[in-house]
Records
---
Amino acid sequence: MIFCSKSSVLKLLVLLTLTQSFVACKQDPPYIATGEKDGVVDDSIHVENNAGVYFNKALSSDGLNVEVKTSGNDELKHLSLDVALNGKVAIKKTLTIDGIIVDAMMADLNKDGKQEVYVFNQSAGSGSYGQLFAFQMDGNRMDSIILDELPTKYLDQYMGHDSFDLQGKHLIRVFPLYHEMDPNCCPTGGMKKLKYKLEKHSGELRLVLDNS
């Protein structure tokens, strides 16, 4: 039988308490993804934690600075655009969204001297349907840009999984085509690429299909 003095037992208890405290406090940090591609630093940040995936990206051009970020949780998520012109806050806009922001870009597609901001969203669920939030900056105004509906001839083969990009003067939308018996995971109809150009119709800014 082994006997321990009271002081030895006390020291052992203190050591065990400190060890448990250290283990409890040591947690994995949130995942932050940044990177560099083709010499261009990607300043967008995705932070994954128990409340969801958050996005933050700063866009700038000729004295115009736009911070695009998300906040909230999976049940109620917000997209915020904070616009500063020549260092002064000009506009703050907040939208309620469902899904995950994939990317944000700035461009002047119609070459009218006014920058546009394009925010690409991917809905929750197996379909991962693409959604676009787009605005044109005009001084202290932020005008909405409307994306035309998908042409009806593609609706029977469309099941989401869109991706968006900007190329030259066009917004590019790409999605897989499904045949009737295809499962969601495995489309067999190839990929469809659509090009949209920015035009003004009846006082509204619209991204219309460019068939040229």
---
Amino acid sequence: MLTDYSPEFRNTWTFLDRRVSDAVDCRKTVQEATQLATAIGAGIGNTVQAFLRKQTH
């Protein structure tokens, strides 16, 4: 804002809107990565359990 001479600081607000949007997108990406890792972990766990069951029977 100190060097923004656009009407009603429009350039500053546009910049801030983009940064907030970036932060929200980043948070969504982290949540999606966490969900994916959980799903992969569950899948691997189920596979190992099935393998171990076959080995004991």
